[in-house]
Structures are given as structure tokens and as C-alpha cells.
Amino acid sequence: MRIAFYAPLKSPNHPVVSGDRQMARMLVKALEYAGHSVELASELRFYLRQPEPKSFDALKIEAADEAARLTKLWHRDGKPDLWFTYHPYYKAPDLIGPELASAFAVPYVTAEASYSRRRNAGLWADSQALVARAIEQAALNICFTQRDRQGLTDAIPDATFGMLSPFIDTAAFREMPSRGCPTRLVTVAMMRPGDKVESYRMLAQALGSIGHLPWTMSVIGDGPARDEVEAQFAGLPADRIEWLGAIEPAAVPDVLYSGGIYVWPGYGEAYGVAYLEAQAAGLPVVAQDIAGVPEVVRDGQTGFLTPPGDVAAFASAMERLLASTDERTIMAAEARRFVLEERSLGGAAARLAELLRKIPVS
């Protein structure tokens, strides 16, 4: 099929690294791997940081212009067989695809759409109504987590849903180099206010209680809250923490391979691509049993998931893996097997092909 792909929150070509951009790229790869021809329908970023009517109106005008451009293009060059929108939600609704898909009788598909009733107030209620209409219209809404599917099903019960587990391109992890330092902790996370800072704060507190153990840590990440993040770790020995800043995605596997355990509390994580990458590199994970994290980490098998907000439990889980070579080794092997065998690009492509085959295409 010829597929028009659109990610209103962040284009696959966006210059800023993030999990959203990475998954958008992975979906394009998976669709191509499955034999489809994928074209980026639009680079327009429809993102409302705050519920401001003027910004909303301005973005709607831009979206209308994009729809007009694509209408002319499709009349000239032919319409696609399917429209595929990644991650529409209340701050980033799709104001291009549903209208075009309806006008040209093209099946409309979403992936990782989300809906939260607690956002139904003021302008957010208006933007969520747009998301809801798109989900209702869709021939298929692909969910990455049971949590998201349940939220959508509760709000829009008559919509059509399918499941696709979060995945990564495992090509960079197929070759296993010599094992890194088993007591080296690794974290990969942007430094943004909100959930990211909260996770860094919890991590710093937990590390403070296991100072008697011989751990060191590598941190990959940067962002506007870097000073605030580093301040949380000020009470820890500076020579134990290596601040690597933002690095190229291609360099991340080498850092993961240099470590022994991946640690990240995971407040607000939709699921966390970084957890999958860490496990592919053979790192057991310590995270919280929170948000979408259980979709990508198997508690007691590929790592430990601790109760939300329990700093002592998080520290205890890190201590357990640092102290037990046998358990760490067993979990490392299972983590690597889990991702390479069950969460690979090839597996995702096969699942996507299975899901899309069920959609009638004119």
C-alpha cells in the first residue's frame, strides 16, 4: 500500500531527539519493512503547549492550508491507499488527516492515540473532542499499551482497536561485545521540568541511600532543566557520576554496553523506548510499576518494578542487583532475549501487516 504518514506532535524529521520522534521513525521503518510505500504527508507540528485560543486558532489555519495543499497534490498525483497518524492526543490533535481521508474515501488509522477524561475542561475539551472524532472515524486505532486501550475503550466504546507491543530496531544490538562493568548504572533521559525532573529527583534520593556500595553511573541526557537535575545529585560523590549530555542515538548502545544495570523511575512514561534499548544491550532494569512501564519491563524476569513513590523500595532493588551477580546475570540474559525475540522491528512489521490486512482498501 501507499501510506500517508503524519505525526502532529513531532515529525520523524524533527531535530530534537525524543521517544516520540524515535517511535515515529520506527513505525515508518516497520511499515516499509512490511512492504508498504510510506510518504510523510506533512511536517506541520500541531502542538499546544498551553490552552491558548489564539495559538489554537493559528494552528487550525495552518492545518487548513496543509489540507488544501494535499488536496491539490492528491488530485494531481493520486490519493494514498491509507492515512496513518501517530500519537494524536489533546495537545496534538490531527486536524489534517480525518478531513482528507473522509473527502477522498481513504481509510484512516491512528497509532498510540490517547484520551483522558480529566482533560475535559476549557480549550482542552475542544481539542479532545477532535481527537475523539478522529478515533471514532478510524478504521483502526492501534494501541501500544493496555492502559491506553482501556482509556480509549471507556471513552469511545464503538471505535475499532488493535494491539501492537512497543518495539525497537534491534539491529544495533545483535552483536554482543564483551560485558561492561556490572556495577555501572546507566540512565538515558531528557532533562525537562515535570515528570523527568521528578524521576531524576527520586533516583538521586535512592542513590544517596546506597552509597556504601561500589556503584558508578553514566547519565545520557540534556535539556532546559539540566541545572535543576544536577542540583539533585549535588550531595553524591562527583567522581561516581559521568554526565554525558545529549549524544547521537547511534552512540547510545556503546554506553549501554559499558554498564551493568539500567535505572530510571519512569514517572509519566507512556512505556519508554529507552527501557527496551537497555534490555536489548543485556541490562536488567530497575523502574517503578507505574504508567506504561510494565508494558516494556517484566517484573522479576527482566528487572524489578517497585511501588510508585517508594524511594526505599527503589534503592533496595538497585542494591539487590548490585549485590547479586547470579541474579543480575540471569535477568540480563532474559532481558536481552525478551527484546531481541519479542520486541524487534521484524516482529512489529509482521504484526502491523496483520492488522492492516483487515482494513478494506479501495
TrEMBL record:
Regions crossing the membrane: none
Signal peptide: none
UniProt-listed Gene3D superfamilies: Glycogen Phosphorylase B (3.40.50.2000)
Pfam family, one: Glyco_trans_1_4
Keywords from the named record: Transferase
CDD domains tied to this protein: GT4_PimA-like
Highest taxon listed in the record's lineage: Bacteria
InterPro entries the UniProt entry points to: Glycosyltransferase_grp1
Gene Ontology molecular function: glycosyltransferase activity
Name listed for the protein in its UniProt record: Glycosyltransferase family 4 protein
Organism: Mesorhizobium neociceri
